[in-house]
């Protein structure tokens, strides 16, 4: 099988697996940070719940619920796996790297840290899909911003 076909197969397997069996799915009871994000052009909705460490610097727990297309749900599932347990600074760096990948906006600073998320780079050809892929990440950013207020 040519490499491009192999990659497409892998992409489909990973997206389907995460959208059918989302990781870190559910809600965190309060007190926690929460944000809701929606993407009306596709009909995707994501709610994220975060619990920070006592010093407010680390994302100790992170869960999501949502509905919508496979890309939005798979991106949310993979995101929770990557940034749960990380510091807010690391999570922000990963979000910026992921944004670059899905928008085709330069090389990520730390490609290895993104892992399977790199497979979503194909969405850069479809501007509507970029919103699907970024939805959960924007919701986390929003939830973190609500803590500063
Ligand atoms: Zn979508």
Low-confidence parts = none
Q: CATH topology, anyone?
A: Sufe protein. Chain: A
> Shape, please?
globular
Spatial strand order of the main sheet: 1-2-3
In the CATH scheme, the class would be: Alpha Beta
User: Termini, distance in Å?
Assistant: 53 Å
**Count the strands?**
3
What is the tally of helical segments? 5
- Report the β-strand fraction as a percent range: 15-25%
How would a crystallographer describe the biggest sheet? 3 strands, antiparallel
Domain count: 1
Q: Structural class given helices, strands, pairing? A: alpha+beta
User: What's the helical proportion of residues?
Assistant: 40-55%
- Element pattern in H and E: HEEEHHHH
Radius of gyration: 15 Å
Let me know the average pLDDT. Answer: 94
Task: Give a quick precis of the structure.
With 149 residues, this protein is of the alpha+beta class.
